[in-house]
């Protein structure tokens, strides 16, 4: 049990957290001196005798905490699609640390943790308008891990189907048992193609992890550099590789630099589904943040972006990110699949008797360790359950409306500005496209090349807002990603205007002095 000193340190940390949360304005980045000071205080070697909880608490609060950025705390941190943490999710997360459950093993006679995670996934599917009776899911560390899950299930499915076509429908040979190389040999497959458009880097990572290779990822987008599928090119790849290769088709539901969608309506997804069925391909969706437009379906103001996520119920699997637009703490992703028997073929834990729990006949909850990567992990589902319970469908719709409206306000400001260019410039030729196509990502550059080369760095140096530096059309660009639940369009647009005008003013002054 904790003694009085331990309790006092916990209370001190709690008070510190409350003070931070109650601040009206938080710099998005710590001062550089704070960073250097913090690094200098980090221990080089483990102490022979511990410092004790009191001294360690002081070290954490006085040295390390001031050198952390405000990525989740600040509504003006626009980097990497980093969501915040809703108050309800933060309350739940404190309980996660206190009770330290193991939700991957279903132990209905011992804890309600796995039941909570099951309900959290079902509430999430309800929010995103997926039929709970047709889909199963599991929590992951994030969209990258969920893409690994999706490609792994896809690899399992397409190779198993090829094996059955060769050995007969009753064949019990499976990739998960045979291994990739032997399964490919039996299936008569030389490789697996991943066909997509403007793929996120996580797809290349997932391909490498799964032994498919980064070179298996092929872009089958239209020639204009947009994220849209070229269906003729896609079918050519599927057809030409059908005899020697198997294929996984991946929909980019929210391209990382622009937020644009690979599909624009139900008919687009139906066309992809038809091709996948024709050539035996698996259809996966990388929906890290674009998937959440389904919350806005039916609202005329957001019709164009909402259509980008229509028809996704026709996919075989979907990757999503909770620590983005769901605004729950790191780390939290989720994976949804329309084929519940596939994941256990890949992730089942064999020969571990102590992990085999028998469910009651009426208890359909499966231990998450048999359908996901980890045997042990944090109780991710509790913050998800809490935040969905606290704010509901309407609360999340209101959050997303504010985020999209703010992104569009920033885009409109940049569109008419003499010194900035809204990207892609060939798309945004008129204001109408801004009000239709902008979701939560705003990509732009300075027209002055010298300024543009340092634009992101200058913006971030203000510590009033943060943007990601990126590249578009072989040119440096800056990217604003709006995803924090605290966004206030009227308040925050003034911050963006002030920072950008200050950057322009400073640059002009520097030029005149030289």
From TrEMBL:
Keyword Endoplasmic reticulum: no
Residues the record lists as N6-(pyridoxal phosphate)lysine modifications: 324
A cellular component annotation (GO) from this entry: cytoplasm
Pfam families documented for this protein: Pyridoxal_deC
Domain of life: Eukaryota
An example molecular function term from Gene Ontology annotations: carboxy-lyase activity
Alphabetized InterPro entries for the sequence: Aromatic_deC, PyrdxlP-dep_de-COase, PyrdxlP-dep_Trfase, PyrdxlP-dep_Trfase_major, PyrdxlP-dep_Trfase_small
Gene3D superfamilies named in the record: Aspartate Aminotransferase, domain 1 (3.90.1150.10), Type I PLP-dependent aspartate aminotransferase-like (Major domain) (3.40.640.10)
Keywords: Lyase, Pyridoxal phosphate
Cofactor(s) of this protein: pyridoxal 5'-phosphate
Keyword match 4Fe-4S: no
GO BP field: carboxylic acid metabolic process
Family membership: Belongs to the group II decarboxylase family.
Protein name (Swiss-Prot/TrEMBL): Pyridoxal-dependent decarboxylase
Species whose genome carries this gene: Alectoria fallacina
């Amino acid at each position: 049990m904790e003694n009085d000193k331990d309790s006092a340190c916990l209370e001190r940390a709690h008070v510190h957290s409350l003070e931070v949360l109650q601040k009206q304005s938080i710099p998005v980045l710590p001062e550089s001196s704070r960073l250097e000071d913090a690094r200098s205080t980090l221990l080089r070697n483990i102490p022979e005798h511990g410092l004790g909880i009191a001294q360690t608490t002081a070290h954490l609060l006085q040295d390390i905490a001031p050198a952390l950025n405000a990525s989740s705390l600040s509504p003006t941190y626009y980097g990497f699609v980093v969501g915040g943490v809703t108050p309800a999710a933060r309350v739940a997360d404190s309980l996660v640390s206190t009770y330290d459950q193991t939700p991957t093993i279903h132990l209905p006679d011992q804890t309600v943790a796995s039941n909570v995670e099951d309900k959290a996934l079902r509430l999430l599917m309800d929010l995103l308008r997926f039929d709970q009776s047709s889909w199963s899911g599991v929590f992951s560390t994030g969209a990258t891990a969920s893409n690994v899950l999706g490609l792994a299930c896809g690899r399992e499915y397409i190779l198993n189907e090829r094996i059955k076509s060769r050995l007969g429908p009753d064949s019990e040979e499976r990739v998960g048992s045979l291994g990739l190389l032997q399964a490919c040999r039996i299936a008569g497959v030389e490789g697996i193609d991943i066909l997509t458009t403007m793929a996120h880097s996580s797809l290349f990572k997932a391909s490498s992890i799964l032994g498919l290779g980064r070179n298996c990822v092929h872009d089958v987008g239209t020639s204009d550099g947009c994220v849209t599928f070229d269906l003729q090119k896609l079918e050519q790849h599927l057809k030409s590789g059908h005899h020697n290769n198997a294929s996984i088709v991946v929909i980019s539901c929210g391209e990382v630099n622009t937020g644009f969608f690979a599909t624009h309506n139900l008919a687009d997804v139906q066309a992809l589904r038809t091709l996948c069925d024709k050539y035996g391909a698996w259809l996966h969706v990388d929906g890290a943040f674009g998937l959440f437009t389904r919350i806005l379906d039916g609202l005329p103001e957001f019709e164009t972006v909402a259509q980008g996520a229509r028809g996704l119920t026709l996919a075989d699997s979907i990757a999503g990110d909770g620590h983005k637009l769901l605004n729950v703490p790191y780390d939290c992703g989720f994976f949804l699949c329309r084929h519940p028997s596939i994941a256990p073929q890949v992730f089942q834990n064999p020969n571990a008797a102590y992990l085999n729990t028998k469910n009651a006949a009426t208890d359909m909850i499966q231990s998450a360790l048999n359908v996901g990567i980890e045997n042990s992990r944090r109780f991710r589902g509790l913050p998800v359950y809490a935040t969905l319970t606290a704010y509901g469908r309407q609360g999340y719709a209101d959050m997303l409306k504010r985020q999209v409206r703010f992104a569009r306000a920033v885009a409109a400001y940049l569109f008419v500005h003499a010194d900035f260019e809204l990207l892609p410039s060939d798309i945004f030729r008129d204001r109408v496209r801004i009000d239709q196509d902008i979701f939560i990502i705003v990509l732009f550059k300075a027209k002055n090349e010298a300024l543009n080369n340092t634009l992101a760095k200058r913006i971030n140096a203000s510590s009033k807002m943060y943007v990601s530096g990126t590249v578009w059309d072989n040119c440096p660009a800056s990217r604003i990603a709006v995803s924090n639940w605290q966004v206030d369009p009227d308040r925050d647009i003034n911050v963006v205007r002030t920072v950008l005008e200050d950057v322009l003013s400073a640059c002009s002054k520097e030029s005149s002095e030289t």
